[in-house]
Structure formats: C-alpha cells, structure tokens
Amino acid sequence: MVRQEQQRAQSPGGIPQTVRLFTSPSDMAKEGTEIAEETEQMIDQKEPDNPVSAVVDSKEMRAVLLTGFGGLNKLKVTKKPMPEPQEGEVKIRVKACGLNFLDLMVRQGNIDNPPKTPFVPGFECSGIVESVGENTEGFEIGDRVMAFVNYSAWAEVVCTPLDFVYKIPDDMTFPEAAAFSMNFVAAYMMLFEVANLREGMSVLVHSAGGAVGQAVTQLCSTVPNVTVFGTASPFKHEAIQHSVTHLFDRNIDCVPEVKKISPDGVDIVLDCLCGENTGKGLSLLKPMGTYILYGSSNMVTGETKSFFSFAKSWWQVEKVNPIKLYEENKVIAGFSLLNLLFKQGGCSQVKTAVQKLLSLYNQKRIKPVVDSLWALEEVKEAMQRIHDRGNIGKLILDVEKSPTPLMANDSTETSEAGEEEEEQEGDNENKERMPFIQ
Amino acid sequence: MVRQEQQRAQSPGGIPQTVRLFTSPSDMAKEGTEIAEETEQMIDQKEPDNPVSAVVDSKEMRAVLLTGFGGLNKLKVTKKPMPEPQEGEVKIRVKACGLNFLDLMVRQGNIDNPPKTPFVPGFECSGIVESVGENTEGFEIGDRVMAFVNYSAWAEVVCTPLDFVYKIPDDMTFPEAAAFSMNFVAAYMMLFEVANLREGMSVLVHSAGGAVGQAVTQLCSTVPNVTVFGTASPFKHEAIQHSVTHLFDRNIDCVPEVKKISPDGVDIVLDCLCGENTGKGLSLLKPMGTYILYGSSNMVTGETKSFFSFAKSWWQVEKVNPIKLYEENKVIAGFSLLNLLFKQGGCSQVKTAVQKLLSLYNQKRIKPVVDSLWALEEVKEAMQRIHDRGNIGKLILDVEKSPTPLMANDSTETSEAGEEEEEQEGDNENKERMPFIQ
C-alpha cells in the first residue's frame, strides 16, 4: 500500500514523467502539497487547464484526471488519447458516469493497491456503443448500454470488456443507468444473495438517503411486509420518509431506538461503517440474522491524514469469534462489488443480479434516484457534495453538460463549497464519519 | 460453565439430593469417579438397576437417566413418574428417539449451562399423541407426530409444547421421523436459509456419512447441478458414494484435494469441526461463499478431560476480521438448532423449514437414513457406535425394542464395545476428532 521509492511512471501520452511517491503516511502528509504542485506543473506543461474546448479531436477525448492522491485540487479535466477497443472489448461513447463515495477514497489513495497516478477515476458509466473489438457477440454499434469499468469511467469514451457491459431498457435514461449499475447491484446482492431477504423480515440500513440506501429501500419494497429501519441526516427525512418505516437521525446511536421498536432486533444489518460499529450491528441481529459490512467509512476522515485512519481502523476493527456466531445463530458477511467484479472474476454472478434488477425496473418496481447532474468540470463540487452528505440518491457526471449546476431536486442544503475542503486540510480529525457508497 | 459450589438439587421424584459439583476442570477430572460412585449409590437406593421390567405401571414410565456427567456408566434405564401435559403441551407415547453427537457432549457436561444431574437426555422423538393439555388446537389423541424436546426425549412418554410438535406423513415410520427432525431441519436451514444454495453451486460437508451429512447430501440432490464434496471414514465410502460427487478420506487434509478439483474453491463449507479448521474452511470459499460452523467436535476428545479441551478450543479458535470478509466477499455463520429452538424462540422459523421438508419427503425427494435401532437399555452401545464413527445415518433408540441389536444395514464395522470407552479414559488426548451431529 505504501510505495517505497521513486518510480518512473509512463504518462498516457507516452512521455515518461518523474512521479515522486510517498514513503510513509507521515511523509505523505508532510509532502502532499509539494508533490501536488510538482505533478500539476508536469501535467500543465503538456495540457491546457480546464475548461477544455468542447470541440474534440477524434484522436482525443476529455476525461477527469487524478494527478496525485490527496484533495480536490488533484482532480482536473484534461485531454487524453482516444482509447480503442481490444479483443472482447466494447467502446462506449459515454453519456453519464456514476460518482460513489469510494471515488473519494480512491482520490485519497485510501484503498488497497491503488493504481499509479495520474489516472482517470470512475467505475461505472452509461452511453452508446461506438465500436466493438473482435469477439464481442451480442453488442452492436448504437446499443444503449451501462458498464462497469475498472477505473477510467469518467471520460467521454470508455473501452471495457463485454462481460462488464449491459444493454439498458429503452425508457431508462443515461443518468438512471449510471445510477443503476453499482448501487442496485450491490443492494440486490447483499439483500438477496448474501442475506436472503424474505417476506416479513426487517432491515437496518445506514445512510438511507444515499444512493445505496435508496436502492436498498426500493428493493425492500419489492418483498411483502419488510420493515426498514434507516438512519439519515435530519434534513433528508422529509424527502425519504416514504421509503423507510422507521427513520432515525444519523447523529444519534440508533441501537436503543431500534430496540425500543423491535426488542428482538432486526434480520439484516447493512453497515457502511466499521470498527466499533461491527459489534453494535451484530448486537442488533435477531437469531438467524445477517450483518453485512459493505464499506468502512470511518477510514475516510478527510485528506491525506486519513491514510493513517485507514491503517488504524484496519487493526482496531473488532474481530469476531465463530463460536459466538454459533451460539447466537448469527451470520457476518463482507461485500465489495468492485473486488467481486475486478479481482475475483464474479461477472457471471453479477450478470444474474443485473438481469433480475432490469426485470424489476421493467416492471416499474424500482427506479434509480438521481440526486444531481454535474459537468466533468464540476467533479470537485460533486465530490464535495457527497463528502458533505448533501445528496439524496446518486450524483451523476453528465458528460455532455456544460458547467452550470442543474439540480434534479430542490434540496436547499447543496454545498457550493467546491474548494472549501482544501482549506480544512489541517482539521481532518474533527470531521464527521462519512458513508461509503459503492 | 464451571459450577462453583455444592448445590441442593431436587430429584424428579421430589427427594432432595446432595450433588457435589465441580469447582474446576482439574477437580472434575480428578474427582469424576468419586462423584460418579456417590451419585450412582443415591440413585440405586431408590431404583433397581436395568433392565427394568417391561410391565409398566401407568403412573410410571421407563426412561434413560444421566446420573452425573462423565462416561457411559453414567447412563442407566430407570423408572420415572409419568409426566402429564401442562397447558399448551402435548403428551406423546414415544416410539423412537434420535441420538445425536450432541448427546455425547451433554453426557460429558461439555455444553454451556447443562441441566443439573440426574436428568433424562434427548432432544427429539416420534410417537403417538396420548393426551393434550389445554390450548393445544390442531392436535388430537392418536396423531402420529415427531417432536423437539428440551431434554427428556429418551423416555416412553414425553410432554412438550405444541410449537415443537409436528404431525408426520402416514408413510413415514417412527424411526424415520425421529431421524428427521433435528438433522434435516439443521441441514435445510443451513443450506437454504443461511447459505442460500442455488443451482450450480458446490458444497463441502464433513462427516458425509453421518446423519447431518446424509441429510445435506439428499437436500443438495434436490437442487439441479450441485457438486458435493464430502469427507468420511474410508469404510463408509462404498455405501455413500452415490450421494457425494467427490469423496475424501476424513483422515487426510481435504483442502488441497478440493482445490485440485475446483481451484476456485466451493460455495458452501459446512464445518462440524472448529478451531484451526475455521481458517481452512474460509480459505476454501469462493467469493460470495458461505462458511457455516455448526458444531465443534474437537471439543470432545473422550471423557471428563475434554472439559479442558473445550475451554482450550474456545479461546484458541481463530477470530475473523470483518474487513477481511469485506475484501474477500465471504460470509461466516454459526448455526445451532437447539439454541434457536430452546433459547432464541425460533419455533416459527423452524416450522417453515419443517413444512418445506415434509413436502420434499412427500414428493419422495428425501428420506432419512436410519443406521440402526437400539433398545433404551442399549443406549451405551449406541453412544459408543456414534463415538466410534461407526454409523451411516441416524442411530435411533427404539422404545419398544428389546435389548437385542438389530442393524438397519450390514455395516461390518459396528462397534460392540459398549463399555470399552471407559477403559480408555486416560488416553483421551490421543483420540481422533469426532463429528458433532446435531
């Protein structure tokens, strides 16, 4: 996770660049600003600053580039060489990209084995098939699709293996499709494959107003008589209360509140937190109940210092004694869709889930909630909004949008801060925990 | 778990008895024999030794009594007052009782909060409803039933709450019914409720020749294209190979053998072992796979000394980091049917499972495998057989049987040892691990 020496990194254009890499978390915190400036200078020599001209050379495309790990100032829109599909790959003219909390962790380098900077972030997009490589039966130019991408989704054009590409229904918009893939698949697999949600069960979901949270509540509504307990910031309560049976302020300890209503606990706990909360989540389970950890948001407390927090929470997380699970008839699970897709060859399992989800969409039983649309050039503002928990549903990068905010709903709590996060860099430890929406 | 002082215990007949209880594992090992003799003398003063006369006073009934925790000599058949049903209870004239590996652990006192001795062991039986208490709608005198009992099943007559009683199909024999309840329910709930077994999956089950193992393999056969990996003693292989896709000698490490056949591992691991094997079991899981610990047989290594082994394995068992589960997309679960039924109010969940199982039975898709029938007076020999892993399928106490061995199959490996276990008391540490069949 910690790189130990200077390495020669190859830029996308083939020009070698010297990228000085971190040797330890403290080095990283100390040297962050210096590295950032150095990297920016190198990039700037080659490419003009944003906004990039809307007239795109067919050999180039616009993309969001992460120039180094750290704050919002490490993100910029730039031109990159046009990718071409290899064998088994589909080339997509991107219309919309999904923004996830995980992208904040990536930006900070707070993930295991991050790619070398600079690179284009983003794990999901929707768009139109522009060309196909060999052996891509089933896809044709002009197909409307959504896709998982192992980085590089935040661009005008993406090439990705056909196993990660799905045709979308005619009436599904591109922002809906980009809001659909990761969050609904994660919610579906957790509820129905890991936890086996059935009639009459109860579910606790944190960040019920987030994109995964909204997917979870919608999927719960497809099963008769499911009780949903949810936590969310108070200002979201009015907007989401129709989808949650019992809604709690995320700033209070929900354990006693849930037990007041359901003394036996709940059947399923979906936890995007970690550490001390694992024990709390387990304690809320009914016998035969399932606790699923799908993210660990207290890893992320702000900027580079959270690299420390990451290591800390890893070691401090409460371990679980299997014999206790045996005595209490409990199940504990972890779920990472990205690992399943890109490290563990889980495409066929994901495909099954997508098919079932598209069927539910066609029956109008689920519909992705889009919080807001942002131009590529507004990626910093969008990230700040997800960081501030301002969103209800999904933040979308709309590739064809010009940089003027266009809200999909009327939330009055939108952060317009943009660069504000930068100024708080020294104050990371005091920040609130954040959800990990993947 | 360790009782700390002398207590006054009330005998079933209402005569107070002084039962000296263990103060520590070493005390227990040291004083086991002495306590046993003391307890036996007290019992013998009141009741004649077995065999008890077949002519039963209607105010009394025959039952197997555990006179103290320890070896086989702590078991005897005796007369007990006839129980009468309380409100909500059903009185059953017992025809057959199930014998589980758990009963060996109970005999040794190797369970959490065991009841005070003397008591009648046994958790399941089948028979005919002889009378009912108030508020027992749905049951009538003469109904053929199977039942879960919170101890006291090994008797001619049992009273148990109606929530634990199920009518059985006309063509299900009483031994089949007694072999059905615990093992098939455990297998069903693990495969279909905890692990969500579906078409095309793979399952590893240890002790595939045991009663739970046979229930697991039969239930796997009700789902298309399920691959079953199983371990069993070599002499059982011929008899059970039709039910297991890949069968391994239980004395070898099956991990590399399974990986040779399926390099990615399996979807479900059912583990009746514990401790070091938890890590092995987890390592065999495919992404999205489920490991279920349903017993911990290396707790039981023989007689009283295993109390030590129990504590040891409790503390030594490998704990699981939830973040590792998250990264690897794995699920770990524990399952204890007895805790679910008798401590955690899980009757309604169990009822759903029983209904589905009876439907499968009626469709002739599953059929309990009965290893052998034993008279109550032969309970020691039966326990020795399960201890020696001699059984294929279920050992049944046939209440109406006279004490002559009657084998349900022709296995040549039957242990006729009976009291042999006693003589090995000093050699517990070298004994093989045993399955925990509940």
From TrEMBL, chains A, B:
Give the matching InterPro entries: ADH-like_N, ER, GroES-like_sf, NAD(P)-bd_dom_sf, SV-ATPase_mito-regulator
The entry's keywords: Oxidoreductase
Spans annotated as Disordered: 1-20, 403-438
An example molecular function term from Gene Ontology annotations:
oxidoreductase activity
Which stretches does UniProt call biased (Basic and acidic residues)?
428-438
Q: Where is the Enoyl reductase (ER) domain?
A: 70-397
Output compositional bias ranges, type Acidic residues: 416-427
Coiled coil feature spans: none
Name of the molecule in the record? Synaptic vesicle membrane protein VAT-1 homolog-like
Q: Which organism is it from?
A: Carassius auratus
- Identify the gene encoding this protein: LOC113051772
